[in-house]
Structure formats: structure tokens, C-alpha cells
Amino acid sequence: MTRPARATAIHEGIAALVERATELAERRPSPPWLQKLRSSGVAAFEKLGFPSTNDEGWRFTNLAPLARIGFALSPDEVSLAERTAALELEARLGPLGLSSPQPRIVFVNGRLLRRSPGGLTAAILFECMKNVLATSPERVERALVAGAAERDPSKQFFGSLGDAFLDEGVVLHVPVGVHLAEPLFILHVSTSPGSTVPPRMVHTRNLFTFEENSSATVVEAYLGANGPSFTNARTDVTLAKGARLHHVKLQLEGPETIHVGQLAVAHAAGAHAASHVFSFGGRLVRNEITMTLRGEDAGTELNGLFCAASGQHVDCHTLIDHALPRASSVELYKGVLDGTGRGVFDGKILVRAGAIRTDARQTNRNLVLSDSALVDSKPQLEIHNNDVRCTHGSTTGRLDADAVFYLRSRGLSPEAARALLTYAFGSELIEKVPSADVRAFLESHLRAWLPANLAAPETR
User: Fold this and answer.
1) Using one digit for the tens of pLDDT, what is the confidence trace for 242-273?
2) Rounded to an integer, what distance in angstroms lies between the CA atom of residue 459 and that of residue 419?
3) What distance in Å separates the CA atoms of residue 460 and residue 453, rounded to the nearest whole number?
4) Which of 148, 159, 172, 358 is the most exposed place for a label (fewest CB within 10 A)?
5) Strand 299-308 relative to strand 388-397: parallel, antiparallel, unpaired?
6) pLDDT (tens digit, 9 = 90+) per residue, 417-428?
7) In Å, what is the CA distance from 295 to each residue of 122, 127, 202, 267, 396?
8) Measuring CA to CA, which residue among 387, 378, 322 is closest to residue 349?
């Protein structure tokens, strides 16, 4: 395709998305503030369009395939065929799927399939966004409007697109002093609509609010079929004083999926959040995480593992903003790349002038299993005062030859030795997940992902 033809296709793709967002707004009866939010999102996206490789933050990630594919929203109700396909895909979660007793909300192609509150009390709000917007929109008005106002309009390509299509997601509110022992599950399943129907797109918005000294673990899982699909997911979290959150994201979509995910967490004094991101599927995946430490003695932890084989591109962008004194952050991201897989890590720690006695550590490690795999790493520190303790570093390389030789000397085959070392490299991140069921699932999934020329290690 020539350059003019590509430009025309991208322009037509933007126009089609704008048209579909406008149609959605017209058929959803909404309060004036929500109508304004959607229309502002449409106008902003129409102006911005899709980011290109000329934008610094996107120079390694080409979104032209997204702009050229004619994605459409799903009908308002889940069909029987979609339900059947979704249940088959959900079975891949094993103990985290159908048999799980934990509270869960399940979506199929962006539409609610079922909500299981489990043993949650009435004081805890764990509800789908559409129901909240229909029955008590005032509960989310302030957060949604403020969130849109705080974002940099010149950079929020997908944030604006999410506002334009704002319709569904999850609203979570944990009251003062409440500690949830069992994880909350949010499951998104994308099914293939067939060759006669346009590929599906999903725009989902989650709002989590934790009051003082409350805590919970939330697991977001994304599954997909083999056909093309587009997921645009955003989660905004507000942590009050002393609140704690473990957020686990499992990205396991099909090989033709385009996934853009955003997580933004605002920490008050003494609050702590841990993000755990595991990306195994998708054609083009981008995860953006912003941790804002707005209170003294706040803390945050970022852990990520991405595995990319031939035909996959995974882009990880993180920002940790230290705004006030004595906050701490620890970040560890790892990538495993095989075949022609491509990975990107772009992580920034910002320490503002008033954020004295900041303690921040950032590490990126990448394991390359083939001559054709490629990863671009860009760790960054931006420090505006001298009373800090900050470190950052990045390494990219192959399996340690001495370690492989040692394992072979103990009787392992070359393939088994390499598999064991690769598994050990990734499992360090899995061990940090607080849920035993999620850890067991991830361990099994990592073993299954190991390249076919490596023998999956047995564990006991």
C-alpha cells in the first residue's frame, strides 16, 4: 500500500470510529454531563486521531493496522453463540473460571454476561458501569469528569476514545476499614463474530475507590479467540489514606488482538498499590501505567512480565510520579522474546522538587531466545532535588551459557536446561502475586508458553 493510500485508510478509520461513537451517544439516554463528556471525547479524538511513530512515546509501535481495520461495537445483548464461545474460552482459566467462588463480573465483547457478587456485603459496591450510569450516575460523575480534565489532551489518544465510547466497565467502592480477603475478578472475553460481521471492539472504563485503611486484590483477565479484535481498557484508582491495592492484569487474548490498556492510581498519604501485569497474547499490545504518589509515606510496586513470539509486539510504558516526601517505589519488568517477537520497555521515575527522601528503584531485564527477536529499553530518572535514593538499570541478553552447562552436567538435556532457566527467569514475577490460585494458573501458562523447541520443565 502506497503512503497516500495508507493515509486515506487511516483517515477513513478515524472517521468511522467518530461516526460510531456519535451513534452510541445518540441512542443512550444520559444526563447532560455524560453527554458532554462523550461529545468532548469524540471531538478530541477526531482532532488527535491515532498516534504515529513520529510521536516520541509511540516511535517503536505502529498503529496503522488498528486504523485500517473496520471495528464495530457489539449489539447490546450477548447472543447465544457468543455466550457459548465465551464459556469455552473461559474454561482456559481453569480454577479461576467457572468454578471460582470469588466475586466476579464477566463481559463478552464488552457486554455484561453475568455478575456474581459472592459473599460481598451491601456496603461494597461492585457493579457494572452501565447499571450505575442508569440508576445512580451521580456516584461516578465527579470521578469521570475530573479524570478527563486531568489528562493531557495532546497525549490522550485512547483516553479520548474511551470517553467517546463511555458505556461499560466496573465500578468498585470499598468502604473505610474494609479488608477483602478473596480477590475480585473482572473477566473480558472477546469472541470472533465470523467472516460476515465486522470485527468487534471493546471500550471499557473501570473506577475503583478505596476509602481509608481499606484493601483488596482485583484481577482483570482478558481472553480472546483467534479472529481480530480491539480492546481499549482503562482503570482509574483512588486510594485514600492507608488504603492498599493489589491489581493483577492477565492479558491472554488471541493472536490477532490489538490491546491498549491504561492503569492510573492516585495514592494518598500512607497508601500502597502493587501492579502485576502479565502479557502472553495479542498481535499488538500496549500497557500504560501511571502511579501518582500524592501523599507522604506512600508506596507503589510495579511488576510486569511479557512474553512475545513471532508476530507479537508488546509495548510497556510506566510513569511513577513522586510528588511528596518520603514515598517509595520499586519496579521490576521482564521480557521474554522468541522468534521475531518485539518488545518495548519505556519506564520513567519523576521525583519532584518537594519530594525529598524519595526511595525509588527501577529494573528492566529482557531475555532474548532467538537471533530475530528485538527489544527496545528506555529506563529514565528525572530528579528535581538532591535528598533522594534512586537507581535504575536495564539488561538484555541470552541465557547464561555457564548455567546451561551446569544443568547439562547434572543430566538435563540442552532443551530442558534452557526451558528450566527461561521458566525461572519469568517465575520471579509470578511469585509476587498475592493469590495462590492466580500464581498456579500463571505458572501453568508460562510453562505452556515456552517455545516448542524447549521441553517444559516439570514442577513439584
Assistant:
1) 999 999 999 999 999 999 999 999 999 999 99
2) 12
3) 22
4) 148
5) unpaired
6) 888 999 999 999
7) 30, 28, 34, 6, 35
8) 322
